[in-house]
Amino acid sequence: MRLVMISDTHIPKRARDLPATLWAAIETADVVIHAGDWVDIGLLNRLETRAARLIACYGNNDGPALRARLPEIAHATLDGVRLAVIHETGQATGREKRCAAMFPDTDVLVFGHSHIPWDTTAPTGLRLLNPGSPTDRRRQPDHTWMSADITAGALHDVTLHRLPPRTA
């Protein structure tokens, strides 16, 4: 099972659309995960049409229309892997311990908000993943997104993808 993970797209405020290379990955993925801060419902509509399966939550910049269609925390079990998706997890200091306590029955937590890619594992085994942002890198060197595979109940081949700089 092939996963594509994105967050903090901020469309159309930070970009008109997702990069073509990311759309290509979305269209071949089994599951697309979006960890909030869509900003406009148009991207949600397009992802629902183009993704085989979408698991998503809303973020702090998402208004009533997005909040009416998306949960604050999304949960799914994918081939035995228990997944949760949330936008905010608080400050980086103590994140693993805090999230492990908040999500004791979760194997993988995908989150966003900071626009900073993150891949760590809590002492409990909870894997924490933040794909960064494909459209708003803030102070990061690159626009990013993540992919991973799930096979026989295990997450593997987690990859951070760096996008080429956007042209005007």
UniProtKB/TrEMBL annotation:
Top EC group: hydrolase
A GO MF term: hydrolase activity
Keyword Metal-binding tagged: yes
Domain Calcineurin-like phosphoesterase: 1-151
Pfam families: Metallophos_2
Keyword Ribosomal protein tagged: no
EC number(s) on file: 3.1.4.-
Keywords of this entry: Metal-binding
Cofactor requirement: a divalent metal cation
Family: Belongs to the metallophosphoesterase superfamily. YfcE family.
PANTHER family membership: VACUOLAR SORTING PROTEIN VPS29
Protein's name according to its UniProt entry: Phosphoesterase
Species whose genome carries this gene: Actinoplanes italicus
